[in-house]
Design a protein that fits this description.
One of its GO terms (molecular function) is phosphatidylcholine lysophospholipase activity. With 350 residues, this protein is α/β, with parallel strands linked by helices. 42% of the residues lie in helices and 14% in strands.
Length: 350
């Protein structure tokens, strides 16, 4: 008969005294304590992952619950929601925020008033956001508020397939939406400056649209790129350095199915190639601690644009120290940003 001896059982010799266990009681206590510590560590890590996913899910539900047609519901009291139709069957949502000094005058005004306001001579920014969420994201509202406070109009667009905009998002479709908005603004703005601000994915949309405008014989008066990448294909094909990246890859529905309308889309948006054709004044804003698009990307964009335009005056790079902790979305918090923007826009008028 065979008997299996478990580690917890005592081992006896056929005759004589009891054989001493291979481990001392003190060693067993240390081992047991180590096992418990490791168990609690794993439980803590699992709880942290679940909490992180839950927060993202709750935020997603919260922002999806916002009525984008009513920006005043979230405190934007000098902003009007507009719907435009760049193509048949496609409707895109846009928030038009007027300069802050006109906020009292804007109360209760309709679309006709906002359209006429575009011709008041104030510079105008078309704001193009990144590849998740919609125009109500806090950092996007933050940029709109900064631009408005400086005295500019802001038109924040949700591309087709984003927010409450209908249609299927594709590279061609995104650019079509921006081209339509540009021409819509130009038809109402007289001689006002019309600039574009592209953040993250929006930087690629901005430069690609700028090239298409050149082909039409038009151009933006100025371009600002924030947290810009060299091209969308390079960026989407690499594993982003983020403390929970592995978690998103293990459970891709958390980040991609819920937050990314461009999942599985074939994007190029070659900012590096576009900048070789663009001669529009350009300012690049990039945080040294950007955790999604490395600061080196901003530096390479600067070198490419500077070489193409052969000018130190028309191409500027503004870097934000890592100690400020702005990461990828926090540049709107910088107290010096309004002056940086104001100086750039003033340079466009000379």
């Amino acid at each position: 008969m065979k008997k299996r001896i478990n580690k917890s059982e005592r081992i006896f010799q056929p005759a004589g005294r009891l054989q001493r266990p291979s481990q001392k009681p003190k060693d067993l206590n240390v081992h047991a304590r180590s096992q418990w510590q490791w168990t609690w560590t794993k439980m803590a890590l699992l709880s942290l992952c679940i909490l992180s996913a839950s927060v993202l899910f709750i935020l997603h539900l919260f922002f999806d619950s916002i009525d984008l047609s009513q920006p005043s519901d979230i405190g934007l009291n000098h902003t009007l929601n507009i719907y435009l139709e760049p193509e048949e069957g496609v409707r895109v949502g846009v928030w038009h925020t007027v300069p802050e000094h006109r906020w009292k005058e804007a109360q209760g005004k309709d679309l006709d008033w906002y359209e006429k306001a575009l011709g008041d001579g104030s510079p105008i920014f078309i704001y193009l956001h990144g590849n998740r969420g919609n125009r109500s994201a806090p950092h996007r509202i933050g940029i709109a508020n900064v631009l408005s406070a400086v005295g500019y109009h802001v038109l924040a667009l949700d591309y087709r397939g984003f927010g409450d905009s209908t249609g299927e998002p594709t590279e061609a479709g995104l650019c079509t939406d921006v081209l339509y908005l540009y021409h819509w603004v130009k038809a109402r703005s007289g001689n006002s400056l019309v600039c574009v601000w592209g953040h993250s994915l929006g930087s690629g949309v901005a430069t690609t649209t700028a090239v298409k405008l050149l082909e039409q014989g038009n151009q933006f008066d100025g371009i600002i790129l924030e947290g810009a990448f060299l091209n969308a294909r390079m960026e989407t094909n690499k594993l982003t350095e983020h403390p929970f990246t592995w978690f998103y890859w293990k459970f891709p529905y958390i980040q991609y199915f819920l937050f990314n309308p461009l999942k599985n889309k074939d994007l190029n948006l070659p900012t590096d190639e576009n900048l070789q054709k663009i001669r529009t004044p350009l300012m690049i804003l990039h945080a040294e601690d950007d955790h999604l698009v490395p600061f080196a990307s901003g530096q390479e964009i600067y070198r490419t644009a500077k070489k193409a335009q052969n000018s130190d005056e028309r191409v500027k790079l503004v870097q934000f120290d890592a100690s400020l902790g702005y990461l990828h979305n926090g540049l709107y918090k910088d107290p010096g940003l309004p002056d940086i923007i104001r100086e750039f826009v003033q340079s466009l008028m000379t």
